[in-house]
Write a structure and sequence with these properties.
Immunoglobulin-like, 398 residues, mainly beta
Length: 398
């Protein structure tokens, strides 16, 4: 009986280090290792991030071409997908070896064995499948009563035996994931398709169902909050994808209307002289709730970043960034990793401490900017959405 059939991304990191031309910089490509097991007609992925290792602690993205090939393209093909991903497609039974290397270094390649074999198939007669979805408050707010704010999309899939005798089905270790379309008829590619981004363990799941028995599986891999604006605020169509090893089955979970968690929130940024300390500028962002219900807020320590521009158009590169204000040249910027939460009531205005800061004009000017009028913006990340606000202007002197 086949084992370790795989059809989602593997993340078992193997590092290849390629010599660089100067300054001991190293070009590194990180790929997944195998072997990979697939059934004919199925797809898996390898992720190939590339970066320059400038020192033991400093990395930078590398614009380096990766070349991939298969020892037998009639069994397995490998092709470039989006981003750092390469797709592995199983064609027929057999074994092939794929190789990935940086262009110009044919002697150093990562090789992954791919075994294509039949997947196990159970007695699936009279097994039915159904899926449902719901929007629920994000984890930080479970059990609260505020109706608006960050939400998560929960999708569940039910497998039910309607026969009068035992039935069985073979599933992946990640039996279901979320697939989202922009149209009900699925005539366009999905706007979100999870398996490439999911790290599933090797192996399978043999599900045996007594007469009338049902099993419920969460469809995972997609976080509405973490994915931020990848889903526009409109109606989408949700499906749970059941991975039966030998094939994929889409089960309609219904439409979902995505609404911005910041709908009805009015944000304002200001920059003015601090009355208590006239030699400083006070920077502040306020949030006013114009909804008829309370709104839940989620933000972090560095949710607001201030920028200064030399012209009123505020175009091009900013001449000052608050993330580096007071940080010694060459030092690393560290932002505390925590999630802050709050609730703003109907008609209420709030300004959490993370939305407030003060700056010395002389330090904004530093040793490279001339005294004069500068024009400011505030980039705020609130409820997993990013917005840029005009913060006015100020005359800066040393």
């Amino acid at each position: 009986m086949p084992s370790s059939l795989r059809h989602s991304t593997l993340f078992l990191c193997a590092l290849l280090v390629f010599p660089a031309a100067a300054h001991a910089r190293q070009e590194i490509v990180s790929v997944t290792s195998g072997p990979v097991g697939l059934a004919p007609g199925r797809r898996s992925w390898v992720r190939v991030p590339k970066f320059l290792l400038k020192s033991r602690t400093i990395k930078a993205d590398a614009d380096t071409t990766v070349v991939a090939g298969s020892s037998d393209s009639s069994v397995v093909t490998v092709s470039a997908d989006t981003g750092d991903y390469w797709a592995i497609d199983a064609k027929r039974l057999g074994t092939a070896r794929i190789s990935l290397r940086l262009r110009g270094d044919s002697a150093r390649a990562v090789q992954v064995d791919v075994i294509v074999r039949d997947a196990p198939i159970g007695d699936e007669r009279k097994i039915t499948y159904s899926a449902t979805h719901r929007l629920v408050p994000s984890n930080a707010y479970r059990g609260t009563h505020a109706a608006l704010g960050p939400m998560e999309l929960e999708v569940t899939l039910t497998v039910r035996n309607t026969a009068d005798s035992t039935r069985d089905v073979w599933l992946s270790n990640c039996p279901a994931w979320i697939r989202i379309y922009s149209t009900r008829d699925r005539s366009r590619p999905p706007v979100k398709d999870v398996p490439r981004d999911v790290n599933c363990g090797m192996g399978e799941m043999h599900v045996t169902l007594a007469p009338g028995e049902a099993r419920v599986f969460p469809a995972g891999g997609f976080r509405l909050t973490i994915d931020r604006d990848t889903l526009p605020n409109r109606r989408h169509y949700v499906f749970a994808v059941l991975d039966r090893l030998h094939d994929l089955k889409e089960i309609d979970a219904g439409p979902v209307d995505i609404v911005s968690p910041n709908a009805g929130l009015r944000l304002r940024a200001s920059l003015e002289r601090d009355g208590a300390a006239p030699r400083k500028l006070r920077a502040r962002v306020t949030v006013t709730n114009t909804n008829a219900s309370p709104v839940r807020l989620e933000y972090g320590a560095c949710s607001v970043v201030w920028y200064a521009y030399a012209t009123p158009e505020r175009s091009g590169k900013a001449v000052w960034n608050s993330m580096y204000h007071g940080v010694p040249r060459g030092a690393e910027v560290v932002c505390p990793l925590y999630l802050a939460t709050a609730t703003v009531g109907q008609g209420q205005t709030v300004s959490p401490r993370e939305f407030n800061a003060s700056f010395e004009p002389a330090k904004i000017l530093g040793d490279s900017l001339r005294p004069g009028r500068y024009y400011f913006t505030a980039r705020i990340e609130l409820n997993w959405r990013t917005q840029v606000l005009n913060a006015g202007s100020a005359v800066l002197t040393r």
